[in-house]
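Our consortium's second objective concerns turning raw sequence data into structural hypotheses that experimental partners can test. To show how far this objective has progressed, the report includes one record in full. It was chosen at random from the queue rather than selected for favorable results. The single chain below, 309 residues long, was entered without modification.
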Amino acid sequence: MTLAAVLALLTSGLFGTSDFLAGALSRRLPGPAVALWSQLAGGAVLLVVVVLSGQGFSGSGAAWGAVAGIVAAAGILVFYRAMSLGSTSIVASIAAGGVALPVIWGIVGGETPSLVGIFGIFVVVVGLALLSLAGSPGKEIPAVRPPCPPPRPRVRAVARIAADGRGPSQLAVPLALLAAACFGGFFILVDRGTAVAGDGVLWVSVGVQVGAVLTTAGFAASSGLRAAVGVASPGLLLPVVLIGLLELGADIALIYATALGQLSVVSVLASLSALVTAILSRFLLAERLSRLGVAGVALSLVGVVLISV
């Protein structure tokens, strides 16, 4: 297994764990509060890491990262809006297909995964689609998760609240297609950022953070969610900070995985956070997955093995 593949899987592991913790913590704190404070903690540590790393400033890398952050944040906002308007099965299936976009982009751009790897990518995409569709007959596993990496849970917390509005149901499919394009486009934009950043690849991560938080904060402010960011107990800040650090580690792992490996492979292996969250929920909270979810987990794991050989 290559270092890029390991880093991509680490990205999924860290994001999946942060999603799991954020879901549990959101029962005690408002979602926007978890989103805001975890983002601030991660952002502060990231700035320290960038300074200590001695990497030179890369304006172009940061710019591509900022666009990637905006696109990913917009994708999750659009995804939850589509969920509020149409069939969850249709919206989730379409959105899960977004991971195919960077795969196609990478292959068209000259990347050459092995035949076994290509089949593994296909198996993972199918597994993610099934996992996105799977509901939980157990406790409180969310029925549908956005099939994408960052920025989460900071955007999702705001997006879920904003999705309560209603509108014409015929908009669901176009919005789902737009969300899929955003999810896939995020990887392509990050890849472009790492390609032009030279030795300053961490500035791509800085850009992602800034673009995502500005987009989310602007949407939250315009949606009247500003009052939901308080923390009643200072003791709850510690797990919030932990979530921010997990997300930061995932962001950095993704940036280096993209810089070192093939986009067509890295984008798939870095999109498995929902799989990690489902496994943690199953073994730590004794929550049961539906048969569809079990099939999605199994296919995703088989696909990872095929990609890694």
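The partners drew two points from this record. The two ends are 7 Å apart (CA to CA). Residues 72 and 151 are 7 Å apart (CA to CA). Both points have been shared with the crystallography group to help prioritize constructs.
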